[in-house]
Design goal:
Shape: elongated
Radius of gyration: 14 Å
Strand content: 25-35%
Order of helices and strands: EHEEE
Structural class: mainly beta
Largest sheet: 4 strands, mixed
Distance between the termini: 16 Å
Strand order of the largest sheet: 1-2-4-3
Number of strands: 4
Number of helices: 1
Number of domains: 1
Length: about 80
Amino acid sequence: MKQELKIGTWNCQGLKTNMQGLRDLCNTCDVVLLQETWLEEWESNVINEVDPSFQGRVFSGMDEGRDVRKGRPFAGLGIIWRKAL
């Protein structure tokens, strides 16, 4: 039996402020590829708080070596997938 895998992509422009949008995608997708998460490395655990049936990984695009930065740079990517996969 052939099973369909549904993959979605989303430029979330700040994951923490758009968590509901990702939760909505989890209702229709098995895997979601994320752009522009705007997460720092220390915030990477946020991806695993989206939905209990999903897990994921994010990669910060922030320059962790800079002490001072003006604004929040556009950066970061992530992937979230159904644990059952």
